Amino acid sequence: MGEARKGKIARLQRALRDEVCVRLQDGATGAEICAWLNGLPAVVKLLAKSFRGEPISEQNVSTWRGGGYAEWALDNARAEEIRRQADLAYQLAKAGGGNLSEGACAVAAGKIQDLLESLETENLPDMVKALASLRKMELATLGEKNDRVKLQQNERALALEEVKFQRTTCELFLQWFANEKARRIAESPAAPSVRIEELRELMFGKA
Q1: Closest-CA residue to 76 (of 33, 17, 34)
Q2: How do the pLDDT tens digits run along the chain, 207 residues long?
Q3: Alpha-carbon span 124 to 130, nearest angstrom
Q4: Which of 21, 47, 60, 96 could form a disulfide with 72 if both were Cys (CB 3.0 to 4.6 A apart)?
Q5: Is 45 helix (H, G, I), strand (E, B) or coil?
Q6: What Cα–Cα distance (Å) separates residue 62 from each residue in 45, 65, 109?
């Protein structure tokens, strides 16, 4: 609702205005809404302060129906469409095993296809811009997918390297465990640091 509205219903609290709209949407008559509003203490107080105590009339409701209510209904329709498109994008992404941006691209492509079917010549520049924007979205999504693939590949490579390192370590352990001199060093009563240094020299030579 715009700030310029100065009518009785426009001056009501937001919750009451929304309730008027809901009742209009549900088919309530002007008389029913007037009877309900004029019986509320908060409304009576407002009318006494700003409208010399004149009650809300059916004409006031009719004026609101063509102004504030019409805007409210349009805003609700837009919000519902946004929710519907967001849900569709999520479902498309989920079905395709991708992310939300992929679903959003699919929704946008469908929208543009609908527009192309009824395209007027004068709207062509706007359509070209829309197609360019969609392409940028697709490229960005492709880049994200490639990044995910590279990350997964790197993680697999690291996992393989870790297994390889573990196996090599075990092989070395078995190899040096069979070495009599290494076993004597490992079983000696010397301090761990001394035994480690002696084993290092045995395995790799003096530094």
Answers
A1: 17
A2: 445 577 899 999 999 999 999 999 999 999 999 999 999 999 999 999 999 999 999 999 999 999 999 999 988 888 777 666 656 555 655 555 555 455 555 555 555 555 555 545 455 466 556 656 666 766 676 666 676 777 777 778 777 787 777 777 667 666 766 778 877 877 788 887 887 787 777 777 776
A3: 10
A4: 21
A5: helix
A6: 22, 5, 41
Amino acid residing at 70: A
- Could you write out the DSSP letters of every residue in 128-181? HHHHHHHHHHHHHHHHHHHHHHHHHHHHHHHHHHHHHHHHHHHHHHHHHHT-HH
Joined tokens for residue 14: 């937001």
Query: What is the reported pTM?
Result: 0.44
Provide the residue type at 52 as one letter.
R
Residue 12 is given by DSSP the state S
For residue 105, the tally of other CB atoms under 10 A from its CB is 22
Give the residue numbers spanning the domain of 165. 154-204
CA atoms within 13 A on the CB side of 201: 9
What is the domain count for the chain?
A: 2
Query: Residue 46: inside a domain, yes or no?
Result: yes
Contact (CB, 8 A) for 64 and 20: yes
Of 74, 90, 107, at which residue does a domain stop? 74
148 located within any domain:
no
